[in-house]
Batch of 4 targets.
Target 1
Amino acid sequence: MSGPKTVARPTRRSVLWSGAAAAAATAAQAQPRAGGAASLKLGVTPNPRTWPVINREATSPLMDLAITVLSPSELFFRQFRDAPFDASEMSISGLMIALSRGDRRFIPLPIFTTRYFFHTLTLVRRDAGIRQPSDLRGKRVGVPEYQMTGALWTRGTLQDEFGVDPKEIHWFLERLPNASQSGAMGIKPPAGTTFSQIPAEKNLGDMMLGGELDAVIMYFPVEVVNTTERSTANLIADPRITTLFPDVAAENARYFAKTGIRHINHCAVIKRDVFERRPELRKAVTDLFDRANDIADRQRLEHIDYHRQAGMIDDKTSAALAQRLVYHGVEPNRRTLETLARYSLAQGFTQQLVDIDKFFSIT
């Protein structure tokens, strides 16, 4: 299989988030204000739709925010284990599982800060005999955590679009039970799944390079090993590794044109006890992220305008780029959310189909 000439890497860690950077962002907390604003601890990940919140461009008169910025894996692990944040981004797959098990600590908010086409991020060894998705059957495939939202999307899409049943694959799980969302929630891959736990002295990147794995999904290397992540190898730069889809952009375009879906990864939550004390904060948190999304979109258009003014993009391209793709709220994302709920049921994580309207209600 030949790889593409240019591979677009996921933006989630295009700027690697080190512990020092997270500490610096946390230190820049707002000072308490008078006037009855609620003091709230907010946990977020660094991405274009949270940067306006982190940078205090988007604020709320109802909230005094102490903001902590973490990698997604560490944020979700901490929140599911100890719930230290009054409001936060949250794994939507993990939240569906938690609510289905009766965990009522969190009220979901229809805020969706990150989106990808996760199935096209799959990497394979060139010598593994994987030329198309169906060749993944019987292969050794690594994943940070089995239940994570991006992995749920990848498996569901591979089954829907290419007929690959997740149970036909031997899965290797990297994150350890004592430092993972699945460990904090007591989640294991559903019955009938073949899986192995990667020992602490190994990691996905090294196993791919060493030929112990044939493929890997949801691979985001880190610069500094942290509580939950330990893979550092830049696999896509290695000549032995390529993408599952030779033309990633073409597959993304085909899938989006067919389904209209771009995979949602995170939602947001407010703790139920916080809501019960101050019900108005549910809307305040939602409004804050809506403002941040508006700011992010405006900044995106301002950046594009430089290229338009310089004649580097034509009017047709400019018009296409002006179309907004990222909206919060249930209705603009209903088909995507209902597809994810279907995947959660089909893959054995929830025992009945999640009703999206009830999921995002306060009850």
Note: Residues 1-35 have pLDDT under 50 and may be disordered.
Target 2
Amino acid sequence: MGNRDQKSEVSEQRAGDFSASLRFGGPRSVVAGTGREGLFFCLWFFCPPLPFHPAALPASLFWLTSGAACRDTPRVAVSIQIRDVSATLGGRRILDGISVEIAAGELFFLLGPSGCGKTTLLRSVAGFVKPSAGTIHFGDEDVTALPPEQREAAMVFQSYALWPHLTVAQNVAFGLELRKLPAAEIKQRVAESLEVVKMGDRAAARPNELSGGQQQRVALARALAVRPRCLLLDEPLSNLDAKLRHEMRGEIRRICKLAELTAIYVTHDQKEALAIADRLAVLEEGRIQQCGSPWEVYRKPAKQSVAAFIGEANFMAGTLQAAVNGVCAVATRHGVLRVAAPANAPAVGQAVTLCIRPEALRVGEAAGGVNQLAGTVRDSVFLGELAQHLVQPAGRDEEWRVLELRPQRAAFPAGTPVTLHFAPEDAVLLTG
């Protein structure tokens, strides 16, 4: 018996972080999936020390509030204000004074390289990480000190964590049943949630009968069923193959907009963010480098690191030579190039960097010879509606990436000399 008690204590200790991810206590807070904690949970569930029913899990795994009930009325989307939030983990500052306001009903993306702090920021909003400074508000309510189960937020992780022995409908109903809602209300909410994610016809199916995309829809339905104030998604499509990820992009946006939810979405996939975000923030070393619409961040990056992270870009170092009538002349080692002047143009003589996207470079000579670049093709790939070229400038140890739309030839043979050009408005002048 002593060994069994010891194993139970170890199980509860190891489940500590995961218990925070699956707390069903409080008015209407539920985490709809898990990350790496899900593996331990599945092992714990299928290999328990004694037989038990899921509803009888220990307090360390499910913190329940007796008598807690969900409201009957639909939840109104809430704005989220993050004000000067910093977080230190293991003696290292992960978040450094982040401030951003997310409008009610907005689909807001956090992205950046590994270790930039995007997941920590999401977990701070969820209540799993306590900020060392700053505040987080849901609407007018300061939730900084509230535990996850009192924030009325739902979280969807990479792994779906569906109960394999339950049907789709039973998985969606699980959290509602723990709250002891009336059977009729549970049935209605389950049907409504499955209808939103277009899974109503699979209500009786088991998880192992579903594709990865369908399982993710069930995880979303489970989150929607509790009618959260906001939805938090941590790379929910990362476990899907490329085709399913592409299909689910539009579905997640449709679901969030149909449910009228404020959503914060963490991803490392730039295309995913550009395709479905209302706005996005690019993080680096715990700070927001730029925040704006997908078009603004892609077409008008604030600094070189943002331009390099969001899509592909060609960079050319130079010095600002002149700025006249909204056009800047930049001296580069490829000649004097002209670009549209930014709102806050740098001073003449200042070192600058030109950012030119691959699709902005066009093959052929420009009218008037403006912004012409000569080089030699190193590689060329025909892809049907477009072609990709790598061009090396004459006598230079660098290469330009060119994306040619509606190519007029199958591909350039390696070594072919070519002339490229770009329009002044298609280049961005960067100082950082």
Note: The chain has eleven helices and 21 strands.
Target 3
Amino acid sequence: MPSRTTPDSAGASVHAQGNPRREHCRTRLPSHLTSWRFPLPSTSHVLQVSTPVRHRGFVRLTTHLLHRMSRLALLLIFAGCAAQPVSRVPRWYGQNSPTYAQDFPSTTSAWTHTVEIDLEAPSPQQAEELRRSGVQLPQVSQRTADPRAHRDFVDLRVTAVGFGLTAGGYLLYCEGLPLPVLVPESHVDLGVTSAEPLNTSIYPKRDSALADLSAWSPEARQPRFAYYRGAEGRLIVPTLFSPATTPRIARTMREVRTDLAQTSERDLKVLLLTLTGTKVLQGIFSRVLRVDSGPELRPLSRHKGLGGQTQASRQPVPRSATPAPEPAPAPAAPAPMPAPPAPSPGLVHALAGNNPTPPVPPGPRLPRDVAARPDVPRALPANRPIGSSPSQNAQVQADIQYLQDIGATNIRVNQQQLKLGDRPRVGINRPDLQFDYSGRRYQVEYDTPSSGRGPSHQSRITSNDPDAEVILLIVP
């Protein structure tokens, strides 16, 4: 349809297309508007209005206020972000990487729990290396960095003390360590009651600590010592164990020596009376027992002379010319039978809970023991020998009699190794004696003083059955 333009009274014009009803809009347009334009594209209608001059100031004021309000809102947002509490977990930096509060087993939040730390003073050599690297360590008091207050100090971690007869030193059983720590006797002086530490530093090794001691100790009036990391860095130990440096350990060491002396003296007396193996002492011992408790022997017709010598009685010589025949000599008394030996003291102590044989850790099993069939062989007679030594065979029989009297079960002699309850078979090695007592399996090995095969037997038995109690006995 053709388009036309209709002028209005104010000079404005309305462009319409084919719709005469739009002509009435001419009377409703505001008089202050300059013009209304209706471009008519093919798909949409856009209305454009020109702003009058008197309203431009109002529009500028409104725009300025909106701009100021937007800046104020942005400032409030930034202030709110800055005022929010820190929700991240605090971090502590260790030697390798950052450490978070969750890494500590005893704390979950640094704000509600106390974290215990141990301070360690470095050695002079370590401090010098850090200074050259540009690291300045803070100064702490000697009381704060005292190694005796450290949780790794050996006097705080020890739980038991033993003495190794074959190792030549003391054995320290410490909390957190699977095996005891050997302290040679050269590192112990139980007579030192007053000593002065060289410093509060903890040296990485014993050699570096002794090097500084040798450089500073000549002018000291009393013994000096230093601290270092021992037991592969798991313990803090002094260079000298004494009542002045480790009072708990030193006191226990004295008790161990006293108990060891008393036990050794008692055991030696028993060995002297029962396990000497000489037939002279066995004969005398058996004769004393017979006189005290055995039946009396028939007295012989003898009497003592003036000199205390025993003389055989003679029949009076008849006065007849025919001489009487000489009396037949009295038969000699039969030789006394040797008494059976007493039970082994080491066996008795082990069953009472004081095994004289120190335990050893299990090692790798031998292939032939691993390949052993688990079926249990039949039990052989308990009176069978364990070797060619008569004294050892007699001692085994005496120990078996003692075990039967106290109620031991599953007794086997010189047979392949079994576990508790005689099942299953765990190796083809043959302990001299094995039995069950009080819910435990005991394995006994008899050796001579010059044999030296006991430790290897103990290691193999323990590898096959770590729960077994091994007893090593020395029988001449």
Note: Residues 90-117 form one domain.
Target 4
Amino acid sequence: MKLLKLLKRIPMWFMMWGLRIIAFPMMIICWPIMYIGEALERWKQKRRLKKRLKKRERKMTSVNEMKFAVLGPSGAGKTTLLACMSEEFERVSPGTIFPADSSTFSSLNKAYRSLKREADNPDKREFERSIEGTSMLREFLFHIVGKGAFLLVRFYDFPGGWIIPGDSNNRIVIDIVKGSAVIIIAINTPYLMEFDGKYIDEGCAVDEIEWVLKRGLEGDSNERLILFVPIKCEKYLATPEERDNLHKAVKKAFQNTLMLTANPLYRDRLAIALLPVKTVGNAEFRRFKLSKYGGVEREVYRKTDIHSSFSPVNVDQPMRYLMSFLLEQFARNKKNGSWYDKFLSFIFREGDLKEVAEYIRKDIKSDNDLSAGFEIFCGRDLIGFPSHN
């Protein structure tokens, strides 16, 4: 991969030195080799993954599965978040968490490579991202691998229209939320922050998400973790003032959900946290490109440095919070005897997945890390953090 990056930069060096007569032939020679090399590397990666899956499936037994809902309108960045999370875990702890089937690998790999290619392109200071949505229910499957066993984790992604009250598929979303111990809400941050939230209805679907949450939580007594995950936050975490503005905007937009923390029916069994992430790292939101009808057609991003590289930040933290929450449930409730407690006890029994779960949460960040911009609204003990006195 270092050689491929070198091939990409060689023509640019000649351009910078004013040697265009050499740069253009070098482009013709180097760049086709680079693109062929990248395609070959992706093919090798896919082949290695298939072999790894087959090998592990022969040796291991599944300890069932857990389901989690990812809520957000079309184009919010849910797939990008999961793709960056998967790649980050493969980088820092290979073989711990990885796609469980070829469909998940293909979808996430495509999303990740597309974003990385745009962010790493040395020819463009700005790049555009179109608002693409899904037209059907999608499931992203991951294996969390322990000693002799693996846990299948299933994330659900819904078409944007399904979260609208009255839609014929709205009930499916509510039922999945009811069955999810952890709910991730992907917030398309530029729509929340720019022009005083002028496009918030178009890009964040706050009212619809809060409706689904209300219906999914009512009449339920289980402990839940709700993670607000603002995406594309490079611009909005740059300074303490920007971070404060982001926090205020999230609290204002989702105030009805946050009011649950004062409700005695919910406050002792809900953990709610805000985890902003930088999904590109080297580029900040610049402007919206509008359609002739006035709606947002594309998002335009500008690199902070033309030579900077794609470098997502904190995309691993939602999974670390998820695992910490489940481990705390196991430690707290293993003697209660309900079917869910027995299930957690079975998953995290000593020698299987407990060690890897503790390893995953080892690098978890709290809201004491001011630079990360995290905030835990309630349920610190449910996640494993000491309560503020």
Note: The longest strand covers residues 61-71.
